[in-house]
Amino acid sequence: AQSVTQLDSQVPVFEEAPVELRCNYSSSVSVYLFWYVQYPNQGLQLLLKYLSGSTLVESINGFEAEFNKSQTSFHLRKPSVHISDTAEYFCAVTPLTGTASKLTFGTGTRLQVTL
Amino acid sequence: GAGVSQSPRYKVAKRGQDVALRCDPISGHVSLFWYQQALGQGPEFLTYFQNEAQLDKSGLPSDRFFAERPEGSVSTLKIQRTQQEDSAVYLCASSPGRRSNSPLHFGNGTRLTVT
């Protein structure tokens, strides 16, 4: 079984400031890792994923996450946030050997960007 | 192109009523998932279909929950004799592949409120 811990339920930050959203996971098998974003009244959208290769992955809107196997972490970072980044962010994992993307999610971190 | 469509968007049911939630996945997507998202929580897996076959229903919380996908496209999640603890957002997701690294596309969800 897998579990995902997002320690920060809310992260307030000023526009143009850097941000880090933390994610730690527990699993007895190797996993794929994901970050999803949920804007108000919308469904989940894939932000970025780690499947293999370089441990640093990037999204098209400036977010990045680094897979750290020894610390079982997959923290999400952005060097300069924008008002439009205000949303709920979910970290998720799924086993490599599973037959489908049965995701285990964390409880989410609400990023609130203000002027 | 068209994404995953869920209806109704909102549903209010009196305790004890039966409800049916519909999911139209992206055309041609083999895999279909249902997740339940309680207020302030991350989504939790309910059930998984590969075409018309329900391969995993380990997340269904009780025998009041039933899902089907008879022709391998549209899926319906039915909840019988609704209880207040069933109040949540029900998310449907589809995926083009069968493997765990196949990307998930989520609908906007159905918010069920049981009074």
Structure overview:
The complex is a heterodimer of chains A (115) and B (115). Chain A has no helices and twelve strands. Chain A has strands spanning 2-5, 10-14, 19-21, 24-27, 31-38, 44-50, 56-58, 64-68, 73-78, 87-95, 104-105, 109-114. In chain A, strands 2, 5, 6, 10, 11 and 12 form a six-stranded mixed beta sheet that branches. Chain A has a four-stranded antiparallel beta sheet with strand order 3-9-8-7, with no helix packed on it. A two-stranded antiparallel ribbon of chain A has the order 1-4. In chain A, a hairpin with an 8-residue loop joins strand 10 (87-95) and strand 11 (104-105). With 115 residues, chain B is mostly beta strands. Chain B is 0% helix and 48% strand. Chain B contains no helices and eleven strands. In chain B, strand 4 (31-37) and strand 5 (44-50) form a beta hairpin. Chain B is globular, with a radius of gyration of 13 Å. The interface between A and B is medium-sized, with 29 and 28 residues.
Question: Any low-confidence stretches of chain B, pLDDT <50, length ≥5?
Answer: none
Distance between the termini of chain A: 41 Å
Radius of gyration of chain A, in angstroms, nearest whole number? 14 Å
Q: Give the overall form of chain B.
A: globular
Low-confidence stretches of chain A: none
The assigned structural class of chain B equals mainly beta
Extended strand count of chain B: 11
What characteristic shape of chain A results from the CA principal axes?
globular
> What is the mean predicted local confidence, pLDDT of chain B?
95
Count of DSSP-assigned helices of chain B: 0
Mean pLDDT of chain A: 93
Helix content of chain A: under 10%
Secondary-structure-derived class of chain A: mainly beta
What is the string of SSEs of chain B from the N terminus onward? EEEEEEEEEEE
Please count the helical segments of chain A.
0
What is the beta-strand fraction of chain A? Answer: over 45%
SSE order of chain A: EEEEEEEEEEEE
Number of strands of chain A: 12
Outline the biggest β-sheet of chain A: 6 strands, mixed
Termini separation of chain B comes to 37 Å
Strand portion of chain B, in percent? over 45%
